[in-house]
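Figure 2 data, in text form.
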Amino acid sequence: MKVIAAFFPLGSVSLVRNVNVGLGSLLSISRTVNGGSLIEAFGSLRRKSTQASVVPQKNKRLGGPYPVRVVNGKNPKRIPQPYRLRGVPRLPDPPKIDPNRPIVQYPYFVERSRYGELPVYYSIKNGRTRQLTTIRRIEGSLQALRDDIVKELFPGALKGDIKINETSRQIIIKGNVRRDVMQWLHDKGF
């Protein structure tokens, strides 16, 4: 390590020149002697040149000094903004009810979940050979709901295709018909 430092006692001009200085050398002004600056050079090889340092700089957008990541003395890299998810809204639109339409009372009621979703679920069993659609949270007559589903949605369905589970108050339909059942329930006002 070879450091050349010039000291001017008048303090008007200070000249420091580093020749073959090791990585991470630190120059600091340590004391004042006779009105001039004594410049001492300290060499430190502890840090590598590839490490990043945090330098407080003024951020124009935020208006204050905030730490900015600087790599090898270059301009700070811009951190990309996180992706914003743009999708369908979480809650579906409420059913549109005509004020002139008479209110229909069904002998059954399908209660929505606490997040406002219809409780219609799709499940796969037996290594993708058995697909089931389940309607849960049914209050009232399960048989009347099953009859309406057979009459309006699946007129040619066999008796074993739509089953009632009295214990858990569910209706189980063979196949992936989740969207059809949800649309039908939505149109009925549930």
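Caption note: Residues 97 and 103 are 9 Å apart (CA to CA).
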